[in-house]
Specification:
Chain lengths: 820, 146
């Protein structure tokens, strides 16, 4: 039931001027340069070198390692944030996870702090420690090398290392999930630990050694979090004792009291509940890499504590915004370690911890409450990259006022939050066998992925597949121009001899299915390696399922167990299929051989350019109402869904296709040859499920053509990027904005995210980054500061189709942007 | 040991190494890098610490088969061997000396671009390449003013 009591849901009386603590914390946060934090790498290496017992079960080994690190982890208080605890030892830290990709920074240890784009500071002393003491220990021990050794350098791993076919994310992470925090808040970690202790005893008596080991591991890992909270309390008490400023003394004493109570015992106040969640997030990052570890539906989880404090007069709205803002800034206290090479693929990305607001509850009723608006206001005021805030909307249950308010926040921040359609997303999860109550309680993971809050371990970033690869392999008989003469996929017939588009479609599917087989096989190999190396007993303790089943998340302990596969180049590949069908088989304008020659030669010469213009301007485009384009988009989505769902993963769940691309569409587009829809070699691909820039001139047709793909066939989520021209009359624009959202959702759209900016503004931001230090943009599922993005990604954002919301048409790309 | 690398010879090596960064061709980059690395492991105890207790077998070869050279680290020493060695930890296959330089230590480093364009390919444990990359970069940072 809705519980909105606020007289003004915009809460506009609360500003950064009235909340000076938030203003100052925000200023400090935006001014920080990331620093690599070696603390975790140091302690887990020491633990494994000196204390590890290989005879312990994998879960117990992992739990002991986590406890050791948390017991030694520093307890810094970097600023005047009201919440205690930090992910790393640095104010803005990039923690190192040597189990994954940390060793890729090795060649750059002495220069990473000096690089031009997004430097990450590292002291000479710590660089030496990494070089001489930490990294050598891990040379044979990270996921990718254990996989290589265990499976004898399989073909699927070699394809991954080519980088141009698919990315196997398990080499770098799983994380990507939403923990279940409600039990921790209501009972405290000590009670969960005691439950695990009792269950261990019962499992031992029943002769269930595996289960007993898991329960033992849970207790050990939880003790680590409790030890760290106690350490923070000690440190806060010492600071309170030492401080000469009475205000600081009070604040440290208050933080000490909070950490003495939570997360060990049930949270009694809103502040304790917030800090308890944050300390659990810190603990989880001792065990799991900082990539898309998403706190979930915090307006739902925290609401009982908020309401109680408000009703008791212990809390007012201003203080609530301040506390929520403090949590948002804490969540943003870390970034990923990024080697220079990865800057090109992922540069500028945060860690994408997603917060989900609004929507309906498990019973299908309006779940928007006062805290939803408090969190929206904090988001609007802070305008920071992380957390990735998302707003759910049920057009039948949620109020129009809520939809308008979310729209207003997007217009004011120019980028956040993203909008999610409850009808389409719940339908998608129901199609995956989730119960109605669980599906309705979905949250966003990372960029755009869907998961039932705290019940679903979706590993949603397991595979990132480049759809242009199988297209090229279909065109060139299993080879790709970039990999030369090497036979990559099956040797399929030469398209020049084909008599129908359907024959080409079958060839394309042959190559696509072969590539998916390879990607899934590698994910399965790495999944098994994770089961041996990287159980997650701490995360398991904060999930629904593992404690009931006596099984770690990595062994299928969650209620729902899926793996996610996302796709890069969707719009370009659909348009290429359209172009082949129209130009070769319907219009017979060119033979397939002529088309192949044009593509191979990058449409060189006058004849090539004439062909390119025809393909670009006269063939059907995804994002319009052209029947050929709609059919090919639908068929591709349907085929990918059917193919992925035919697999069962190592945890016993299905594979779920999705369509978001982070920045990979820029990097992979940059190295892909010409394609049949008139795209020249090296041009960036379009992002997520968005139509190709410039291809969809009418907003309504664009939204409808994307929306009709929605429903059960896209259970993993999608990212649709839309750019709107800002309007002077903000209120009128917010009204139209909300109406457009509703129409798009009623047509079936899953998600949409916006950049409220013009071509000219982004061109100027590229030219004068110093004028746009805080310009926040949506990339493909996450937010970034424009200045931090690489050139290719900046160009992609500049050339994205800009629509005038009032007229519904695309704004012509200005001449100065044509070369971008 | 220092006698093996009199100052003039060392200086000449550094000059040739430096010139690789400005040359368009950099054909000899690998040979120069390995020779200089070998020399510095002998001359510089701090640099030598990088290979203390380290066992690593590296195979380098050019795409056209013209260059094939190995570096073997064992017993706190580095050995450079012409031709191929059995069971390398990693094999690095490169199109040209310039592409290898860009891949490993160029100030205009383009590791991802090199890999995506297949200017450089690898087979084997990438962590060995990461360690080698550190040693090469450190060598570059040790370069004296000439």
């Amino acid at each position: 039931m809705t519980t909105v009591t606020l007289a003004d849901i915009s809460l506009k009386e609360h500003t950064l001027e009235t909340l000076p603590r938030l203003a100052e914390l925000r200023r400090q946060a935006l001014a920080r340069t990331p620093e690599i934090c070696i603390e975790r790498a140091r302690y887990i290496t020491r633990y494994l070198q000196s204390h590890d017992d290989p005879d312990d079960a994998p879960e117990v080994r992992r739990a002991k390692m986590v406890r050791y690190f948390l017991a030694h982890k520093s307890a810094p208080f970097h600023d005047a944030n009201l919440l205690a605890g930090s992910t790393t030892s640095k104010p803005l830290g990039a923690p190192l996870f040597p189990e994954f990709f940390a060793l890729y920074i090795w060649p750059e240890l002495e220069v990473v702090g000096e690089r031009k784009k997004n430097p990450q500071k590292l002291s000479a002393r710590e660089a030496r420690e990494l070089n001489f003491e930490i990294f050598p220990f891990w040379m044979e021990r990270n996921v990718i090398e254990v996989t290589r050794s265990r499976y004898n350098n399989p073909r699927c791993l070699q394809l991954f290392e080519n980088l141009v076919f698919f990315i196997a994310s398990k080499a770098g992470c799983i994380s990507h999930c939403v923990p279940w925090y409600r039990t921790m808040l209501e009972r405290g970690l000590e009670d969960i630990r005691d439950e695990a202790r009792a269950k261990e005893e019962r499992a031992r008596q029943a002769g269930n050694r595996t289960g007993a080991d898991f329960y033992r591991a849970v207790q050990i890992a939880l003790e680590g979090v409790l030890a760290h909270a106690a350490r923070l309390a000690d440190e806060a008490e010492q600071r309170a004792a030492k401080s000469k400023d009475p205000e600081m003394r009070r604040e440290f004493a208050a933080m000490a009291r909070v950490c003495r109570r939570v997360p060990a015992r049930p949270a009694e106040t809103f502040r304790e509940a917030l800090n308890a969640i944050w300390l659990c997030q810190v603990g989880i990052h001792a065990e799991n890499i900082n990539m898309a570890m998403s706190p979930g539906r915090l307006d739902q989880v925290l609401y009982p504590w908020y309401r109680r404090d408000i009703e008791a007069g212990r809390l007012d709205v201003a203080r609530a915004i301040e506390l929520v803002g403090c949590l948002w800034l804490k969540i943003a206290d870390n970034v990923t370690m990024v080697p220079e090479a990865s800057e090109e693929m992922f540069g500028g990305a945060g860690t994408v911890p997603a917060i989900t607001l609004g929507g309906i509850d498990g019973q299908g009723e309006d779940a928007v409450n006062d805290l939803t608006y408090v969190m929206l206001r904090a988001t609007e005021l802070l305008r920071i990259r992380d957390p990735n805030v998302n707003a759910r909307y049920d057009y039948e249950k949620n109020s129009k006022a809520y939809c308008r308010r979310v729209s207003e926040v997007i217009l004011n921040t120019r980028a956040v939050p993203a909008f999610y359609n409850d009808h389409a997303n719940i339908t998608a999860l129901l199609g995956q066998g989730e119960s109605p109550e669980h599906a309705r309680d979905y949250a966003i993971v990372g960029c755009v992925e869907l998961a039932s809050n705290g019940r679903d371990y979706p590993a949603s970033s397991s595979i990132m597949l480049n759809l242009a690869a199988p297209l090229e392999m279909a065109l060139f008989r299993g080879r790709r121009p970039i990999t030369g003469e090497e036979q990559i996929g099956p040797r399929t017939p030469d398209p020049a001899g084909l008599e129908s588009f359907e024959e080409f479609w079958e060839i394309f599917k042959t190559q696509l299915d072969w590539l998916i087989d390879q990607a899934v096989q590698l994910n399965e190999h790495m999944g098994h390696v994770h089961q041996e190396m990287l159980p997650s007993p701490l995360l398991s303790a904060l999930f629904r399922g593992p404690l009931e089943k006596g099984r770690d998340l990595i062994h299928g302990g969650a209620l729902y167990n899926s793996s996610g596969a996302t796709h890069i180049g969707f719009g370009d590949v659909v348009d290429s299929l359209n172009a082949i069908e129209q130009a070769v088989f319907i219009d017979k304008k060119y033979t397939f051989r002529e088309l192949l020659n044009g593509v191979r030669n990058d449409f060189a010469g006058p004849a090539g350019e004439k062909m390119r213009q025809y393909l670009k301007n006269r063939t059907p485009k995804y994002g319009t109402e052209e029947p050929v384009a709609r059919k090919n988009a639908r068929n591709l989505v349907h085929h990918l869904f059917t193919k992925y769902q035919s697999y069962t993963n190592y945890r016993g769940g299905p594979y779920r296709p999705s369509y978001w691309t982070m920045t990979n569409h820029a990097g992979l587009g940059g190295i892909t040859g010409a394609l049949p829809h008139g795209r020249k070699a090296g041009q960036v691909f379009t992002s997520g499920i968005t139509p190709v820039s410039g291809a969809a001139p009418e907003l309504t047709a664009c939204l409808n053509s994307v929306a009709e793909l929605g429903g059960e066939h896209i259970p993993g989520g999608w990212a649709l990027n839309i750019k709107y021209t800002p309007e002077k009359d903000r209120a009128a624009m917010a009204e139209r904005f909300a109406e457009t959202i509703e129409a798009y959702f009623r047509a079936g759209g899953h998600q949409v995210q916006f950049n409220i900016m013009t071509y000219e503004m982004l061109l100027d931001a590229k030219k004068h980054p110093e004028k746009y230090l805080e310009l926040l943009v949506r990339v493909s599922g996450y937010s970034a500061y424009f200045k931090d993005l690489n050139k290719m990604m900046q160009d992609e954002l500049i050339t994205r189709t800009q629509y005038d919301l009032e007229g519904g048409g695309a704004v012509p790309l200005p001449p100065e942007a044509q070369g971008e | 040991m220092a006698g093996l690398f009199p100052n003039k010879m060392e200086e000449a090596l550094w000059r040739r190494f430096r010139d690789c960064f400005t040359s368009e061709v950099a054909d000899d980059f690998l040979q120069i890098l390995l020779t200089l690395m070998q020399a510095m492991f002998v001359l510089n105890p701090d640099y030598r610490r990088n290979i203390h207790g380290f066992n690593g077998r590296y195979q380098f070869r050019s795409e056209d088969g013209q260059v094939s050279v190995a570096a073997v680290f064992a017993d706190d020493r580095m050995q450079v061997i012409k031709g191929t060695i059995p069971d390398p930890h990693i094999t690095v296959i490169f199109r040209s000396g310039r592409s290898l330089l860009n891949f490993i230590i160029s100030p205009r480093q383009d590791i991802l671009g090199s890999m995506l364009r297949h200017d450089v390919r690898t087979e084997g444990n990438l962590n060995y390449l990461n360690k080698f990359g550190y040693m090469a970069k450190h060598l570059q940072l040790m370069m004296p003013q000439l």
